[in-house]
């Protein structure tokens, strides 16, 4: 039986090579795109779930209630982890964890800048990171301990075993002993690090982290499997009450849990509660994958229907000699599954061939390995779902034909069947329109981000780590920098202007309500900061060596409005109990991504030797020349540190890497969807032309021109596309409007985007249909009128 089904299916496919090739191509492209998306989604969903204890791991989050607003973040007091472990028996492990920082590690002749963090002593007991050498309990249990990755161990000592017990010099001023070597952090893990230092060392270096009123590090815990999570969270909620002395009637902080398995995907918060994040991109591309499979299945259905006239007599004869409808259904479903199987093989080949390019685009290391059960399940699911989706309608439709009417040559398709097929085309183009408009709006937003005036000039701005002798001899270094051709101006700052996440509520001024707690961003800078960044000072002046500015401040417009001074210049302001005066107001500039609104900011004059970034403004067109001179100067003045730098404009673009990748993927898959939809439209055009062959011949005999016949055959399809445009436009507007809400600053959704998308869809449809229409119109009338 099965052999007979596939034999007939193979013969039918060979007889109709063109239509079979189009069917297979459409299905293969749809399945290949879906496979790519599945691999990407699987990788995204796996982040946070790769640990043995992932189901019991949680991040402690803060929900801050202040000034009528609720803000959620993961910045917690540095002493929270140890206190939670002491106070709650449900907490079996707890560890603090910090942000990534670049530091220079030296061992022997090797001097390399590596990325490191601080972590609590329970870190390796909580997270099932493979230790090549050392034990979880002792890896970070002393202030002098350092745990390094396999990569670092291989680079400095040859292998993991030889690294244990060896000394590594940190930033050329402190020695640590290697107590553990861990496997390299997977490339898909968003929390990358090459080494870890102990929590005791972090607290020693950062005394502020011992204060309950300060936040900064993250706190991770592992609960007992028997713990009641809801009850624990209820006890945790007011844990800081009585410990944080800043609490008032208008300000307090509640603690809550975020499961480690959700931390990556659900990183967005609105009004203090989870609201989107990377999960939105996962959902978007999952919908795109479903659209592609649907469009490919519809394409198959339309093409199969277009050939149904040719198969009708076959069905009639088989029914007349006693074939049951069930056997016909099996036959046509078998044909669908054969085509789908061939398409799947081609799809797998395409994925294997283009996976390196896809990995390069997405920055991932995806694999399609046959030894993974999920892969086989996915491929089997694709085969079954696509086969059923593509073959069901043709199978049940053809098997339902009346043999008497068919053999009399009276086969006609009713209004219901015609409406169904046209509805499928409309549905295809609705999905295509959604993808086209979505892609255009994503790229408009990305263009808006890249070209928006963020309040300072990020072009030709270079950041150099302020390390070693560069910090100790800054005056000499900055003077020498200004002598280098191509260097226009120099300053230093505590933070990179793209990463200013330091906030404080310890700000007061005369007339301030003592119960009104306001969070201010703050950063320390040196002279010429405004000039180097090209930040506009709209009132007052910049910091100057001619004045005693050590306790004076610059504030941004948002801070001036929040403080409430009508004329802020010269007015008093106190931060951390240290009084000073406002000497100037700078125009608002963005110091975080455009996902976040500009917040009040205080800029203070920092000590000459207390900074992390040297900012250099270069002459346009002379950056390469300037960098060569800067490198030579750094190597001569700071031989214990490798020369490194970063461009602020590149860092700015990297902030939106995720959106750029999703936008590029959407573009590629939108083009595929349009192409596959056009195959379906081609099938319906072929079907229509075949049905109206005799009519076309009569019209040509009566003098109709090729142009009029092409117009006659094309207008019906253009009507379908116009209907799709009308239906898709409001849906596309709503979907993209919701997507843009994740940005505090948004590009305008212009009417021309929908007009352009609609016009593009009409042009593509017209080109597709015209090919078949012109072919039918050019057919000789004598040949057309012989068709019965």
TrEMBL record:
Its main location: membrane. Keywords: Cell membrane, Membrane, Transmembrane, Transmembrane helix. InterPro entries: ABC3_permease_C, MacB_PCD, Macrolide_Exporter_MacB. GO terms for molecular function: transmembrane transporter activity. It is a multi-pass membrane protein. Residues 20-238, 459-628 form the MacB-like periplasmic core domain. Residues 287-403, 668-777 form the ABC3 transporter permease C-terminal domain. The chain crosses the membrane at residues 21-41, 284-304, 336-355, 375-398, 419-443, 661-687, 717-737, 749-771. One of its GO terms (cellular component) is plasma membrane. Signal peptide: none annotated. It is found in: Cell membrane. This is ABC transporter permease.
């Amino acid at each position: 039986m099965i052999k007979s089904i596939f034999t007939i299916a193979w013969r039918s496919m060979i007889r109709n090579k063109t239509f079979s090739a189009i069917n297979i191509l459409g299905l293969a492209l749809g399945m290949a795109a879906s496979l790519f998306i599945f691999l990407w989604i699987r990788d995204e969903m796996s982040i946070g779930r790769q640990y043995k204890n992932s189901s019991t791991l949680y991040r402690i989050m803060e929900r801050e209630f202040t000034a009528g607003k609720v803000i959620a973040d993961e910045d917690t007091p540095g002493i929270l982890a140890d206190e939670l472990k002491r106070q709650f028996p449900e907490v079996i492990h707890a560890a603090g964890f910090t942000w990534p920082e670049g530091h220079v590690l030296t061992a022997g002749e090797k001097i390399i800048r590596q990325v490191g963090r601080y972590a609590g002593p329970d870190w390796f007991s909580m997270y099932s990171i493979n230790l090549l050498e050392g034990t979880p309990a002792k890896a970070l249990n002393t202030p002098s301990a350092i745990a390094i990755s396999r990569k670092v161990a291989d680079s400095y000592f040859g292998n993991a075993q030889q690294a244990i017990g060896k000394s590594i010099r940190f930033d050329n001023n402190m020695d640590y002993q290697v107590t553990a070597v861990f496997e390299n952090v997977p490339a898909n893990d968003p929390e990358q690090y090459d080494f870890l230092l102990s929590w005791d060392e972090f607290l020693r270096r950062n005394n502020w982290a011992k204060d309950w009123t300060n936040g900064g590090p993250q706190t991770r815990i592992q609960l007992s499997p028997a713990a009641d999570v809801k009850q624990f969270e209820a006890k945790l909620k007011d844990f800081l009450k009585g410990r944080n002395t800043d609490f008032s009637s208008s300000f307090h902080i509640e603690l809550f849990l975020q499961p480690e398995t959700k931390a990556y995907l659900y990183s967005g918060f609105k009004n203090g509660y989870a609201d989107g994040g990377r999960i939105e991109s996962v959902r978007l591309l999952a919908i795109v994958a479903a659209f592609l499979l649907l469009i490919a299945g519809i394409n198959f259905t339309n093409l199969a229907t277009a050939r149904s006239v040719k198969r009708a007599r076959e069905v009639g004869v088989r029914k007349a000699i006693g074939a049951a409808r069930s056997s016909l259904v099996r036959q046509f479903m078998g044909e669908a599954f054969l085509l789908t199987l061939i398409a799947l093989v081609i799809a797998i080949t395409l994925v294997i061939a283009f996976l390196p390019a896809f990995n390069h685009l997405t920055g991932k290391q995806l694999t399609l390995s046959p030894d993974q059960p999920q892969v086989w399940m996915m491929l089997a699911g694709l085969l079954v779902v696509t086969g059923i989706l593509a073959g069901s309608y043709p199978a049940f439709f053809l098997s339902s034909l009346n043999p008497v009417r068919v053999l009399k040559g009276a086969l006609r398709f009713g209004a219901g069947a015609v409406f169904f097929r046209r509805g499928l085309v409309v549905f295809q183009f609705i999905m295509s329109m959604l993808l086209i408009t979505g892609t255009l709006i994503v790229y408009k937003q990305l263009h808006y981000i890249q070209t928006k005036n963020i309040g300072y000039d990020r072009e030709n701005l270079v950041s150099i780590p302020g390390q070693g002798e560069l910090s100790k001899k800054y005056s000499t270094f900055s003077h020498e920098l200004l002598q280098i051709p191509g260097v226009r101006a120099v300053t230093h700052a505590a933070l990179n202007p793209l990463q200013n996440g330091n906030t404080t509520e310890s700000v007061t001024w005369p007339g301030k309500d003592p119960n009104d707690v306001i969070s201010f961003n703050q950063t320390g800078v040196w002279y010429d900061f405004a000039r180097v960044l090209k930040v506009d000072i709209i009132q007052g002046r910049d910091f100057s060596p001619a004045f005693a500015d050590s306790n004076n401040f610059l504030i941004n417009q948002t801070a001036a409005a929040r403080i409430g001074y009508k004329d802020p210049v010269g007015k008093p302001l106190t931060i951390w109990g240290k009084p000073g005066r406002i000497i100037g107001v700078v125009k608002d500039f963005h110091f975080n991504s455009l996902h976040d609104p500009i917040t009040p900011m205080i800029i203070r004059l920092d000590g000459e030797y207390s900074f992390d970034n040297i900012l250099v403004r270069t002459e346009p067109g002379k950056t390469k020349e300037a960098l060569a001179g800067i490198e030579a100067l750094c190597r001569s003045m700071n031989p214990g540190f490798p020369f490194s730098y970063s461009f602020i404009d590149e860092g700015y673009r990297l902030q939106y890497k995720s959106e750029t990748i999703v936008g590029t993927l959407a573009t590629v898959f939108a083009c595929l969807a349009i192409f596959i939809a056009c195959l379906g439209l081609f099938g319906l055009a072929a079907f229509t032309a075949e049905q109206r062959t005799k009519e076309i011949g009569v019209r040509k005999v009566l003098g109709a021109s090729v142009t009029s016949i092409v117009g006659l055959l094309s207008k019906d399809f253009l009507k379908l596309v116009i209907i799709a445009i009308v239906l898709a436009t409001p849906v596309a507007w709503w979907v993209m409007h919701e997507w843009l809400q994740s940005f505090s600053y948004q590009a305008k959704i212009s009417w021309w985007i929908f007009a352009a998308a609609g016009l593009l869809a009409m042009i593509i449809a017209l080109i597709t249909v015209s090919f078949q229409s012109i072919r039918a119109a050019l057919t000789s009338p004598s040949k057309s009128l012989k068709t019965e």
